[in-house]
Amino acid sequence: MHDLSVLNFVGSDFVVINERLARFYGIPNVRGDQFRRVPVPDGVHRGGIVTQASMLTITSNGTRTSPVNRGTWVLKNVLGIDPGLPVANAGDIAPKVPGIDRATVRQRLEIHRTLPQCARCHNKIDPLGFALENFNADGEWRDQEGFGYKGRIERNDPKINAASKLPDGTAIDGVDELQVVLRQREDLFLNCLASKLLTYALGRELGIADQPAVKAAVAHTKQNRYTLRSLVTFIVLSNSFQTK
Ligand code: HEC
Question: For residue 118, how far is its CA from the centre of ligand 1 (angstroms)?
Answer without folding.
Answer: 7
